[in-house]
User: Fold this.
Amino acid sequence: MKIAILSRNRRLYSTRRLVEAAEQRGHEVHVLDFLKCYMDITPSHPSIWYKGTKLEGYDAVIPRIGASVTHYGLAVIRQFEMMGVYCLTESVALGRSRDKLRAMQLFSRKGLGMPSTSFAYQVHNTKDLIKLVGGAPLVVKLCEGTQGRGVVLAETAKAAESVIEAFRELRAEFLVQEFIKEAGGSDIRALVIGSKVVAAMQRTAMDGEFRSNLHRGGSAQLIKLTPAERRTAVKAAQTMGLNVAGVDLLRSSRGPLLMEVNSSPGLEGIEGATQKDVAGFIIQYVEENAKPNKTRTRGTG
Assistant:
């Protein structure tokens, strides 16, 4: 198969591992900086160009789109979809997962467990927002933040009001969420491919930090999920429409609570913690689901 990996940096661990896994299975792989792609949206012959070369003959595309460039990344994925190329992460699913508010609304509709969450526009609703999630301590979270950025723990109601008003001044969209104390600064990242969890790890925050993200100095270790946690992770990924997803859960006194779903989950932490070939699982899924482009022409891509 001829596979394109949409990534801004071919040296990133996740990109390198996907290339290695695909090449080990005999595939032709090209890493494309999607911001350097440009498109012809002519109805009869939609096409994508890259560094003066028309991109043709691809069987599958694996998007690795960063949150800060989601808009253009979505446009490139949509263009490949218009050309009939299989995209591991579809444009609609990626856009849905990047909007935390929309995602939480969909999770709520499906009856998935999640922390109490509130959202509003007007500043005078601040006190009501805090009451809706059970008061302080609480978490204020930017709707488009990643890797723990834009997530603030407010220990008191006064602190919560200050943070909320500061975000309002910045005209930022954000959620206010219940703080789950019994999670103890730990969360679970479940890696879902298709309809099953292929790997899972527990992430624990460093001393003095409540965010367990590995980018924030957290540590990771292998963990065994309960059946309820597995079901929640798979249903969350399917609710987003994602074929590959990193699903973040908290263990609570009322069962697993869903925090968010990542459409471009990093592979380094989970492969290191579980010693599983997650990149290989992803390529295998592509093999099983992409229809070969029999008219493709070999080229440099």
